[in-house]
């Protein structure tokens, strides 16, 4: 059976919708007003674009008081968009703010619920180097289970694959996804090793995070100062 890609193509065929989806790629839930501001469009125009994304099944919406909150429909949509990014040209930064945002995304970000960018790729490479993950499938080894448990990460039974590679669209190398990737991302955020950049998708690695990364075996040179 063949697939009809045109429905999704039509849903993506507007720069503002690309801006909206890029912002939601970190798995966050955001109000329509914030998405409109990020895309540089009016609230009424944002509503039209969000309706198109809803109709295509790319986003979900839920009420929160007087606001409507939007997020990606699920992790499958995030994974598909991440892979589609390999075929898409980079959006040219048209301002200093956009240039800084692009730099922060390349440095560290969430790809739905797991760490990506140079941070995610370096962390994955360090876990492979230590024998915690296999190559190329990034399966978790027995040594890896011990290692992540010692760092406060306990995996619970899930239908989700424990670990899998997700090719990073900025680094062109794999970072870790799956249940383990999600658990590590949550651990880094809860421990204050990374913090979200307000209004954006990028992450900042904190001083505590740099010390933690050294314990994970990530060379300091892997990340920007």
From TrEMBL:
Protein name per its UniProtKB record: Winged helix-turn-helix domain-containing protein
CDD domains referenced in this protein's UniProt entry, alphabetically: HTH_ARSR
Domain HTH arsR-type positions: 1-92
NCBIfam families referenced in this protein's UniProt entry, alphabetically: HTH_metalloreg
SUPFAM superfamilies in the record: Winged helix' DNA-binding domain
Species of the source: Microbacterium candidum
InterPro entries in the record: ArsR-like_HTH, HTH_ArsR_DNA-bd_dom, HTH_Metal-responsive_Reg, WH-like_DNA-bd_sf, WH_DNA-bd_sf
């Amino acid at each position: 059976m063949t697939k009809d890609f045109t429905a999704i193509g039509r849903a993506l065929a507007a720069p503002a919708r690309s801006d909206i989806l890029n912002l939601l790629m970190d798995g966050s839930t955001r109000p329509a007003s914030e998405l409109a501001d990020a895309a540089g469009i009016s609230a009424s125009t944002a509503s039209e674009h969000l309706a198109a994304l809803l109709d295509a099944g790319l986003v979900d919406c839920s009420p929160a008081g007087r606001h409507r909150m939007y997020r990606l429909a699920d992790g499958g949509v995030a994974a598909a968009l991440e892979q589609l990014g390999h075929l898409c040209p980079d959006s040219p930064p048209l301002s200093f703010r956009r240039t800084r945002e692009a730099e922060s995304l390349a440095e560290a970000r969430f790809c739905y619920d797991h760490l990506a960018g140079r941070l995610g790729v370096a962390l994955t490479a360090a876990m492979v180097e230590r024998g915690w993950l296999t190559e190329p499938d990034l399966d978790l080894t027995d040594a890896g289970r011990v290692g992540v448990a010692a760092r406060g990460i306990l995996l619970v039974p899930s239908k989700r694959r424990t670990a899998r590679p997700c090719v990073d669209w900025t680094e062109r190398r794999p970072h870790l996804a799956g249940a383990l990737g999600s658990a590590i991302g949550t651990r880094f955020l809860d421990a204050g090793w990374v913090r979200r950049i307000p209004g954006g998708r990028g992450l900042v690695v904190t001083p505590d995070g740099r010390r933690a990364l050294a314990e994970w075996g990530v060379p300091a040179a892997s990340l920007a100062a």
